[in-house]
Amino acid sequence: MSSAVVLFTGGKDSVYALHRAVKEGLEVRALATVTPHYKYSMLYHQPNYLSLLAQAQALSTPLETIGLYNPEYEVEALKHLLGRVKKKYGVGTIVTGSVKSRFQLRVFNEVANRLGLKIYAPCWGISELEYMKELLGSGIEFMVISITSMGIPHYLLGKVFDINDLEKLMKLAEKYGFNISFEGGEAETLAVNAPLFKYRLVIYGKRVVVSEFEGYFQVEKVVLAKK
Question: Which of 10, 149, 161, 164 could bond to 178 as cystine, CB 3.0-4.6 Å?
Fold first, then answer.
């Protein structure tokens, strides 16, 4: 069985990629997270650390992280983190939840090649709408925790996303032109339950509206609960 590390944000895509990797027979030995301490990174999401810790515990999988304060070092930070993970856990494959970003996948491939690792990207190139439907039917539950696009309603912030929300979002995406799977950075998500989670996450916090097209859910407390 091949061993792997998952590039993990705690969002729907990385959690889905993790599940696909396990289904394909990969042994996931660690989760790896780069956390940018600034807004609007072209390469990374801005995960919530409390949630990451809870998700790692729910998965019974080690979490390796690195903080980033300068966008000029985004690639170097990833190389450093994955080099550390490779040495510590002996992994041979990087699992990524990339769906459509050619820039993101190119960077991940370049870093993987430098480190002598393989890339597994199960979400790459699939239809965004079909992907969202598959997610909702897979047992992965997620909420929207940030919005940075015109047309995505603020009521979604802090709410577990369901099929009714997807139907409403489809109509809004046609009108405003945002990506239905949020792959362009229009929104970020947080997985609160999944088949591989031994516990579900209960998230407490508050909705913050910044402007008509920007808002976020401020996570204040995360509790692991029985499923």
Answer: 149
Residue 5's closest CA among 59, 47, 73? Answer: 59
Backbone angles phi and psi of 65, in degrees to 5: -130, 160
Do 174 and 111 have their domain in common? no
| Tokens of residue 101, six digits | 């970003």
Give the H or E element holding residue 181.
Answer: none
Q: Does residue 148 contact residue 187 with C-beta atoms inside 8 Å?
A: yes
How many domains are there within the chain? Answer: 2
Q: What does the pLDDT look like over 51-77, one tens digit per residue?
A: 999 999 999 999 999 999 998 999 999
Distance, CA of 80 to CA of 76 (rounded, Å): 6
